[in-house]
Amino acid sequence: MKVLILGANGQIAKFVENRILTEDQFKDIELTLFLRDRSRLQQLADNPRVTLVEGNLTDEKAVQQAMVGQQLVLIATVDTDSENTITTNVIQAMKAQHVDRVLAASSIGIYAEEPNPQFHAWNQSTLSGALAPMRQASELLQQSGLTYTTMQFAWLNNHDAINYTITEKGEKFAGGSGSRKSMADAILKMIADPTLYANKVIGISDPETKDAPSVVN
C-alpha cells in the first residue's frame, strides 16, 4: 500500500514513519513524505520505501502532484486556517487522483466532548480561536464523499507509554491528555486496517486523565 503523509516532520508523524519502516507488519507499505523542508528527513532519503517531497500544503499544485498513485492519506497537520485551505486542497487532490481513504488530525473540543466540566471550560477558552476552523475542516471531510476519519487528539504529552481509549462523536472523551506515541499507535491501527473507524469522528485520549481540570503534561 502507498501512504502519503502530509506534514511528515511532525512528532506524531515521525513516530508513525519509524514504526512503518521498522515493524514487519508494515513491510509492504511505501511512504511518500510531504514536508516544507525535505532536509529535515534527509536520513530517510536513501530508504527504497521512502519518497521525500518538498512543498507547502497551501500549494494546490504541489498537493496534487504528491497525491498521484497514493492509496491512503494522513493529514498530520491540524488545519486551523479560517479558510481551510489545507483541507480543501487535500479533498480536491484526492478526488482528482481517485484516492479515497484519509485520516485527518484534529483536536479535542471541536464538538465540546471534553471529559469533565472543568476541562471543558479550560479547553474551550484556551482553544477559542482554533476550534471553529478545526470543526469546519472536520465538516468538510464529512461532506466530501471520501472515506474519512477525523482524529481528535487529546492534549499531547511525551510520556513513553501507549495508553488510550477511542471514543466516537457524541461521546465524552475518556481523558483530557494523551501521549504522542498513543496517537501514533491509533493511526497505525487504521493504516493496518483502513476499514477501522471509516467515516467516523473519533477521540483519542488517556483515560487516566479523565478527572484532570486542564492539560496533563
Q: Which helices and strands appear, and what pairs or packs with what?
A:
Elements lengths: L1 E5 L4 H12 L7 E6 L14 E5 L5 H8 L4 E4 L9 H12 L4 E7 L9 H10 L4 H12 L4 E7 L1 E3 L7 E4 L8 E3 H13 L7 E6 L12
Helix pairs in contact: 1-6, 2-3
Quick tags:
6 helices, eight-stranded mixed β-sheet, 217 residues, alpha/beta
Question: Helices and strands: which structural class?
Answer: alpha/beta
Count the E strands. Answer: 10
Helix fraction, binned, reads: 25-40%
Span between termini:
35 Å
Low-pLDDT ranges: none
Mean pLDDT: 97
By DSSP (H or I, 4+ residues per run), the number of helices equals: 6
- What order do the helices and strands follow? EHEEHEHEHHEEEEHE
* Lateral arrangement of strands in the main beta sheet: 3-2-1-4-5-6-10-8
Cα-based radius of gyration, to the nearest Å = 17 Å
Which term fits the overall shape? globular
**Strand composition percent:** 15-25%
Please outline the major beta sheet: 8 strands, mixed
Assembly category: single chain
Overall description:
By secondary structure, this protein is α/β, with parallel strands linked by helices. Helices cover 31% and strands 23% of the residues. It has an 8-stranded mixed sheet, with helices on both faces. The longest helix is centred in the C-terminal third of the chain and has 13 residues. The radius of gyration is 17 Å and the shape is globular.
Q: What can be said about this structure in brief?
A:
By secondary structure, this protein is of the alpha/beta class. It contains six helices and ten strands; from the N terminus they run E-H-E-E-H-E-H-E-H-H-E-E-E-E-H-E.
